[in-house]
Amino acid sequence: MTKPLGRGSSSRLARTHLVILAGLLGLGAGIVLLGSNDPAPLRSPSQAAESGVRPNPGSSVGDAVHALARLEPAAGVLMIGARPGVRIESIRVSEGDSVRAGDLLAILEGHSQAEKQLALAEAQKKSADHQRELQRKRLALEREGEDRLKGPRLDAATRMNDLTQQRVKQLRDLLPKLNPLVDKDERAKSDLAQTYFQLEVAANKAELDLKELQAQLDFQPRRRALEDEGVADESPDAMVLARQIDLARVALEETEVHAPAPGLVLDLFAHPGEVSSGPLLSLGDVSAMVAKAEVYQSDVPRLAVGDPAEVSVQGQTIAGKVTQIGRLVGRNGLKNVDPRALQDLHVVEVSIALDQTAEASNYVNMQVDVTLHPGTRARGPGGP
User: Fold this and answer.
1) Where does the chain hold its CATH 2.40.30.170 domain(s)?
2) 335 contact partners, CB below 8 Å, separation of at least 6
3) Which are the contacts of 332, defined by CB distance < 8 A and separation ≥ 6?
4) For 109-159, what is each residue's pLDDT tens digit?
5) Is 321 helix (H, G, I), strand (E, B) or coil?
6) What are the pLDDT digits (tens) for 334-379?
7) In this entry, which stretches build a coiled coil (predicted)?
8) 86: which residues sit within 8 A by CB, 6+ positions away?
9) Which of 48, 214, 274, 328 is deepest in the core (most CB within 10 A)?
């Protein structure tokens, strides 16, 4: 059976309860204070703006959309390379040089030999062209002479044939009268037979010469066509020499690196004397600059092409406008420097054309802050 507590025991018990209660209250206050100093990540763009933390990529505060971006030439950065494994003889440009399309940037191993091969091929073709031109002139002179003599030669051959045929006919008609006269004289008979034979030979030769001349004149157009084909610029020999020049020129081009487009040399990745590993230099046309922003996917439907934007470059605010909104959602590549900001986001790339490029062109590939101001139009699922 429990005994009732006296007055002293009740007072001590009450004081004990008060001490325990005060300790619990103090512990709770300490936990609250510790929680207020904990740098826990901010979970919303509004929390970031209210706490003074730089907005997360793709965050929106009020009507504005904040994002991180990277400065690039509007046409992009071109990576110019050389064949791996080839020694670099010389680099003709320096960082910061302006180049035009087609300008020589670098010379690779074997350039001197390729130049000699091209010069040899061109000399061979030049010599062949010269010989072909001389042959054309010779043919022209020969044809001019042939054309002038064609008529007289044909007339002379025709008259000679007619004359010899007439003499043979005359002697043939006289043979019945002459044979009895020389029948008893063997020498005279032999002379008559020899004379008749000589006339027949002359007649046959004159007839053959006339037919040969007529055949030459008949075949003359075809012969001249073959001659023209042999000295034509499109002849097989000329084409072979032209192809040799093309091959030599290609071999020379393989030892040269030319600028594919105009722009500014942004950086050099190799030096003369080194063996190329691929990249040689980077080139960009900085006359037009853009900011490639990574906008949080939930803010993208609010944006439309033409929306105004502001880009902060080295403390200077540069105006711009949205020129392109991507369709591919991916992980953000730009990271906020504040440890409390969200780092792993799903973003869409948005291109912003800058109104002024003088300052931005000095900081290609620089990470900058962007503020976009969505207009009245909204970008639907299919895009503008």
Assistant:
1) 45-76+286-372
2) 68, 343
3) 57, 58, 68, 294, 343, 344, 345, 346, 347
4) 999 999 999 999 999 999 999 999 999 999 999 999 988 988 998 899 899
5) strand
6) 766 555 555 557 899 999 999 999 999 999 999 999 999 997 444 4
7) 111-216
8) 108, 109, 110, 275, 276
9) 48
Please check whether residue 295 is in contact with residue 60, taking contact to mean a CB–CB distance below 8 angstroms: no
Hey, what's the torsion of the CAs at 100, 101, 107, 111, to 10 degrees? -130
b/e per residue, 135-161, with b = 16+ CB within 10 A? eeeeeeeeeeeeeeeeeebeeebeebb
CA atoms of 236 and 226, how far apart (whole Å): 13
CATH superfamily membership of 45-76+286-372: Efflux pump adaptor protein, beta barrel domain (2.40.30.170)
Strand, coil or helix: what is 380? coil
Q: How long is the chain?
A: 384
Written as six digits, the tokens of 100 are 């035009």
Q: How far is CA 339 from CA 40, 42, 380, in A?
A: 9, 10, 34
174 alpha-carbon distance from chain centroid: 93
> What are the start-end ranges of the H helices in the chain?
7-36, 45-51, 111-182, 186-230, 236-253
pLDDT of residue 32: 40
Place of tokens 């192809």: 243
Instruction: Name residue, tokens 């799903």.
Output: 346
Partners of 309 in beta bridges: 320, 372
Distance of CA 125 to the CA centre of its chain: 28
Q: Which two tokens stand for residue 353?
A: 């054309």
Burial category of 69 from C-beta neighbours within 10 Å (exposed 0-12, middle 13-18, buried 19 and up): buried
**Residues forming CATH 1.10.287 domain(s) in the chain:** 114-247
